[in-house]
């Protein structure tokens, strides 16, 4: 039979910590292979070749495992190692064996409190057994041994202030560390705080020890009610002031300051109108008395207030059962000169816009609390419509209102009144005068004249009328239009809307001017209306809808002149022109027939040419291109044939810059001497003209003397142009002189002197 081989089974090896006998043999291992050959032992694991290293070793020949240094259980409670059996060549001869090393605890650590100081509090007058707080401690030794079994105790007690309490007031649970009260008499007003010296020990309280301190405060309870000190006060307050402090009251409270058990809460009674209020000063706990509504010396000169006080927190059941503390405050009101006041501000006055001056608008507008004498004045009145009685304040209308004033906005006119008392204190109030619209103006019809097209497809259905009213609503539109039958027959008016109507004929009327009387009325109360004449011209129209005749439009304009008046004015003007013309003609004829010989028109004292004394024409100049300018004066006998055309149109028929050519004389011959004076005692200017004509007929260089005046050539290209263009645009070549044959025998020779050119 074969025996089954089993692995090594080694029980845990126990080693005491802090052992001083090192190195120390712990256990020996052996392999069954030692009988067949050499075996080498090796050890691996924490404490050997892993951290913490060099704590253990094994003899590779004998298999003894030893500790090399003292062990610390608080750092390493156990070690798990593996042992190997190897051949000299390093081959594993057997499976590795696990070796468990357990470090045994020793009481080498003293217990420690978790805090150096513990803080707690306990209400005053707590009963014995009241839990105050708990403390705790730790021990690094094995908690499964007595080395870590802790016991708590109080080894000392101090009171603050010192020696305020001599008996032991607190105890502690030995196992849990809970601190509790042991006796009665915890009074915060006597002792504020306790300082306890605590101790903890292992081995159930008999081993190593550790100390700490517990500080226990005695907390306040509201066992004292606040008390007024003193219980009565006298305070003065100025009238008309509010939201101001007028005085303070004080209380005492033995509870802890700054807490709700100490903080006072005040109340006021016997203040029916709520003129006063009181609040607490958070620092001093005093009551601050204030006036929240103005006091009036003239109404009440003294107020008696009753104050009560209590704490913010309710009283403890352990406090004495006593009523709330109270105090009496007498407030004396001090008088001052108060400003007068208006009974309403702004002062509202409603009045019709057409109210007559002198009307009383408002009275009894202001009063003075001190009953002193008042003076009134108007400090703002842009239009100067108002006046005021300086003593009574009665407001009167000084001038009529005008709704169109720029100072009237939304029918309201604003002014300002100031009142001043005997002490110089004043007050002001606005005056808002609401002007009630009245119907003051009749509507005005528009347009007053126009034209209507008649006949055909261009006939106008009617004239659109409208109306304007200076009054404001509701005294304006809607307007009512009406034709007065007795004044405007054959016409009708049709309403379009509230402001427009159409005027149209009821029958087909002839072309002409018509005056139509229309009645227009507003919607005011009472209403106003007016008759208005509308001048309508019926006329045929062109394609643009305009009258073809201008007279109708003029007569129908808004000027308002009738047709008959126009005819009369025109006739008078024509008659005046005719009379003026006749007077000038008669005067000229009378002078001519009464002129004596030797005193004719051409007689003069000058030796110069007589022509210059009659009509002296300045040389007009030849323009930019004329260098042959000359001047010829024309004298024509009105008894002869009608004047030639060139007498009215200078240069007609004659090219610019030239004179007509003569056929009866050679060119460039010397000119004869013209007469400079008329013969002695000429009977008529005709004789002088005849003499000059003879000389001119003999002069080959100039036109006949009785020809028209030819003005100088104005030049070509001139902006001014030429006078010759007035008569004709033709040249000499186009001029026909045959018409000279029709002017009688005196001009026959002229016709023969010029060629057809």
UniProtKB/TrEMBL annotation:
The chain crosses the membrane at residues 563-589. Keywords: Calcium, Cell adhesion, Cell junction, Cell membrane, Glycoprotein, Membrane, Metal-binding, Repeat, Transmembrane, Transmembrane helix. The keyword Metal-binding applies. It is a single-pass type I membrane protein. One of its GO terms (molecular function) is beta-catenin binding. GO terms for cellular component: adherens junction; catenin complex. Its main location: other. Residues 7-113, 114-228, 229-342, 343-445 form the Cadherin domain. GO terms for biological process: adherens junction organization; calcium-dependent cell-cell adhesion via plasma membrane cell adhesion molecules; cell migration involved in gastrulation; cell morphogenesis; cell-cell adhesion mediated by cadherin; cell-cell junction assembly; convergent extension involved in gastrulation; ectoderm development. SMART domains: CA. It holds the Pfam family Cadherin. It is found in: Cell junction, Adherens junction; Cell membrane. Cadherins are calcium-dependent cell adhesion proteins. PANTHER family: CADHERIN-15, CADHERIN-23. This is Cadherin 15, type 1, M-cadherin (myotubule). It comes from Fundulus heteroclitus.
């Amino acid at each position: 039979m074969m025996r089954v081989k089993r692995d090594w089974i080694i029980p845990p090896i126990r080693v005491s910590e802090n052992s001083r006998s090192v190195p120390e043999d712990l256990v020996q291992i052996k392999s069954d292979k030692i009988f067949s050959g050499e075996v080498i032992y090796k050890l691996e694991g924490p404490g050997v070749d892993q951290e913490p290293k060099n704590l253990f070793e094994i003899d590779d020949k004998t298999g003894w495992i030893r500790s090399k240094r003292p062990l610390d259980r608080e750092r390493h409670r156990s070690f798990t190692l593996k042992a190997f059996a190897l051949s000299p060549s390093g081959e594993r001869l057997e499976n590795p064996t696990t070796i468990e090393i357990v470090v045994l605890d020793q009481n080498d650590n003293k217990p420690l409190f978790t805090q150096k100081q513990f803080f707690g509090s306990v209400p005053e007058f707590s009963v014995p057994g009241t839990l105050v707080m708990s403390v705790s401690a730790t021990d690094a030794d094995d908690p499964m041994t007595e080395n870590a079994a802790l016991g708590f105790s109080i080894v000392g007690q101090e009171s603050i202030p010192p020696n305020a309490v001599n008996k032991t007031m607190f105890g502690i649970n030995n196992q849990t560390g809970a601190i509790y009260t042991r006796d009665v008499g915890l009074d915060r007003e006597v002792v504020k705080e306790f300082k306890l010296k605590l101790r903890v020990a292992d081995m159930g309280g008999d081993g190593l020890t550790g100390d700490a301190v517990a500080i226990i405060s005695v907390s306040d309870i509201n066992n004292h009610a606040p008390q007024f000190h003193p219980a009565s006060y006298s305070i003065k307050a100025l009238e008309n002031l509010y939201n101001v402090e007028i005085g303070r009251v004080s209380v005492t409270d033995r509870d802890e300051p700054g807490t709700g058990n100490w903080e006072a809460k005040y109340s006021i009674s016997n203040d029916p109108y709520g003129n006063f209020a009181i609040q607490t000063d958070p620092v001093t706990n005093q009551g601050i008395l204030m006036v929240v509504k103005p006091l009036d010396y003239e109404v009440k000169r003294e107020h008696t207030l009753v104050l009560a006080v209590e704490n913010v927190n309710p009283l403890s059941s352990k406090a004495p059962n006593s009523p709330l503390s109270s105090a009496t405050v007498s407030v004396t009101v001090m008088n001052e000169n108060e400003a007068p006041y208006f009974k309403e501000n702004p002062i509202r006055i409603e009045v019709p816009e057409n109210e007559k001056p002198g009307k009383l608008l408002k009275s009894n507008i202001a009063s003075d609390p001190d009953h002193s004498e008042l003076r009134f004045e108007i400090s703002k009145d842009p239009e100067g419509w108002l006046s005021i009685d300086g003593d009574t304040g009665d407001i009167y209308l000084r001038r009529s209102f005008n709704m169109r004033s720029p100072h009237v906005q939304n029918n309201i006119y604003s002014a300002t009144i100031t009142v001043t008392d005997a002490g110089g204190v004043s007050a002001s109030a606005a005056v808002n005068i609401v002007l009630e619209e009245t119907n003051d103006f009749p509507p005005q019809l528009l347009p007053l004249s126009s034209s209507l097209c008649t006949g055909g497809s261009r006939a106008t259905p009617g004239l659109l009328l409208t109306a304007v009213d200076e009054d404001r609503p509701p005294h304006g539109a809607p307007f009512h239009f009406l034709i007065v039958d007795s004044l405007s027959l054959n016409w009708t008016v049709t309403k379009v809307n509230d402001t427009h109507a159409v005027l149209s004929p009821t029958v087909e009327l002839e072309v002409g001017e018509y005056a139509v009387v229309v009645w227009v009325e507003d919607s005011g109360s009472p209403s106003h209306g007016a008759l208005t004449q509308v001048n309508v011209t019926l006329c045929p129209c062109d394609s643009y809808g305009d009258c073809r005749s201008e007279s109708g439009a003029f007569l129908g304009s808004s000027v308002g002149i009738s047709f008959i008046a126009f005819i009369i004015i025109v006739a008078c003007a024509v008659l005046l022109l005719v009379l003026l013309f006749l007077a000038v003609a008669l005067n000229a004829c009378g002078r001519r027939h009464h002129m004596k010989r030797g005193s004719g028109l051409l007689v003069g004292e000058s030796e110069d040419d007589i022509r210059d004394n009659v009509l002296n024409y300045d040389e007009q100049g030849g323009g930019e291109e004329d260098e042959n300018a000359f001047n010829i004066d024309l004298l024509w006998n009105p008894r002869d044939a009608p004047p030639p055309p060139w007498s009215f149109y200078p240069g007609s028929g004659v090219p610019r810059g030239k004179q007509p050519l003569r056929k009866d004389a050679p060119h460039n011959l010397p000119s004869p001497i013209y007469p400079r004076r008329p013969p002695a005692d000429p009977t008529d200017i005709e004789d002088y003209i005849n003499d000059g004509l003879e000389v001119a007929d003999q002069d080959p260089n100039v036109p006949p003397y009785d020809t028209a005046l030819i003005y100088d050539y104005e030049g070509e290209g001139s902006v001014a142009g030429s006078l010759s263009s007035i008569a004709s645009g033709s040249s000499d070549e186009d001029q026909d002189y045959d018409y000279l044959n029709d002017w009688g025998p005196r001009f026959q020779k002229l016709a023969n002197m010029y060629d057809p050119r």
